[in-house]
Write a structure and sequence with these properties.
alpha+beta, 6-stranded mixed β-sheet, 15 helices, 35% helix
């Protein structure tokens, strides 16, 4: 029911082949802008959940008035439309990072800012250094780039990022990476004067830009790196189920075999890792939870959808209308909100289930269904949540559907549904851990897992 960020696939597709530059006339841009604005109002479950009608309309009018040139290229058009959709302040209603334009820039010999950045406690920290100044260490605070404070720079980037709050916007910038977004907003620059606080003292450096492909993309790993893995640390089993998407039969075989190994090992504790996880489908997560649930369960307390003329037309063109889910979209009146129920999921048989203590790791990069699953486990008291607050809300506007703008072909994602977590809370917050441990810099040092293992060994 939820999205899954396939960022690595998206970028590898565009980096793998040259992209022809595209230009769109002013009339085409304005038509797509109008189409985007009205489709969001019509199709979104509640476009004004986090923004007033006046604010949303005013932002759209300002965007429209800014189109004064005769034509825009694909990057300019994408950036313009992102500013309109991001005003909804809904993470699942979005236009993705402009991968096609980024690919074209890469093949033209494009360059990037050489530092990756993490955002914590309202400060910006060097996460990885690809520059020609190795003395800049990870964990140093970066305060300015080319005379602009990081607060000023983020204020320019935020309109390109759909999210409910700055904490989640920062997580998404970490996810897609600061150098990529810096390029999108500020364009190519050959050098950067940066101010960095090291050992308590501010220092200035002039950093040369790095080649996008050889100097950056080929040296880094994406933030979303969940993969199926089973390890043992003494009496504790560590299970990373991977993202909740893909080959479901293969996924279930991995979960089945892992639980057999865990029981064979007589593990007392089970650590389930949902960090750096892009989410996916509830059928995957429910299958996992069924191995340590002690009663029937659901992944929400309420799930409802809004139908509309726009959604109906899209459904008739792209979906199997013989299926109940899509039939109901067509049966209800335009604009009607209606509940869609899910049957309770049954636990595995008692002899198959894990009966020890369960701990679930989360961080700010636990997205969508991974955040919903963590909340589900917490609300049913199936396990203890460990780590830091998730960026995504567990009660959220989601259940995306996708369409493209008619002239530019830019893909749009809109939330047609409303999901309420199991305990019924609609607080504007992520999943709050029972045991808080910060995932500092999202680097190779695993503070959360190591911190939990230390606690378990001490007990």
């Amino acid at each position: 029911m939820k999205k899954y960020f396939s960022l690595a696939l998206l970028l590898s597709t565009f980096l793998g082949q040259p992209i022809t530059a595209q230009q769109f006339g002013q009339k085409e841009i304005l038509q797509d802008l109008d189409y985007l604005y009205h489709s969001l109002i019509d199709a979104h479950y509640n476009i004004y959940a986090y923004v007033t009608e006046a604010e949303f309309s005013g932002n759209y009018q300002n965007a429209r008035a800014s189109v004064t040139q005769d034509s825009l290229n694909l990057l300019e058009a994408t950036s313009l439309f992102q500013k309109v959709i991001s005003a909804a302040n809904n993470g699942h209603t979005e236009i993705d990072f402009p991968g096609a334009s980024y690919g074209a820039y890469a093949h033209s010999g494009g360059t990037l800012f050489p530092l990756e950045i993490a955002f914590e406690n309202n400060k910006s920290w060097v996460r990885k250094n690809f520059s020609d100044h190795p003395e800049i260490q990870a964990g140093a605070e970066i305060t300015h780039i080319n005379g602009k404070s990081m607060e000023e720079i983020l204020a320019k980037i935020y309109p390109q990022v759909s999210a409910e709050r700055p904490y989640f916007k920062n997580a998404k910038i970490e996810l897609y990476s600061f150098p990529r977004y810096y390029w999108q907003v500020f364009g190519q620059q050959h050098s950067f004067e940066v101010q960095i606080v090291m050992d308590g003292s501010p220092r200035k450096f002039v950093l040369n830009a790095i080649n996008l492909i050889e100097g950056y993309e080929m040296k880094r790993n994406e933030v979303l790196n969940a993969k199926m893995m089973l390890k043992f640390y003494g009496a504790t089993a560590y299970l990373n189920p991977g993202h909740f998407s893909g080959d479901e039969a293969k996924y279930q075989r991995f979960i089945d075999s892992s639980l057999v190994e865990i029981k064979r090992n007589n593990s007392k504790n089970l650590v389930v890792d949902l960090r750096n996880n892009g989410g996916g489908n509830d059928s995957f997560s429910d299958y996992l939870v069924s191995y340590f649930a002690d009663k029937p369960f659901t992944w929400n307390s309420s799930f409802s959808l809004k139908t509309s003329q726009f959604l109906k037309e899209h459904t008739r063109k792209h979906s199997d209308t013989t299926k109940t889910y899509f039939k109901k979209i067509l049966e209800h009146q335009n604009g009607e909100v209606y509940p869609y129920g899910f049957e309770a999921y049954q636990p595995q048989s008692k002899e198959k289930r894990f009966h020890g203590e369960v701990y679930v790791l989360v961080n700010r990069q636990s997205h969508s269904q991974s955040a919903v699953t963590a909340a589900q486990i917490q609300d049913y008291t199936f396990g203890t949540i460990v780590g830091e607050e998730t960026g995504d809300y567990p009660s959220l506007y989601a259940s995306q559907f996708h369409y493209t703008l008619p002239n530019t072909g830019i893909p749009v994602k809109v939330s047609k549904g409303r999901i309420i977590r199991v305990n019924g809370s609609t607080k504007s917050e992520g999943v709050i851990p029972d045991i808080f441990i910060r995932d500092h810099l999202l680097d190779e040092q695993d503070e959360i897992l190591e911190g939990l293992l230390y606690r378990l060994e001490s007990n």
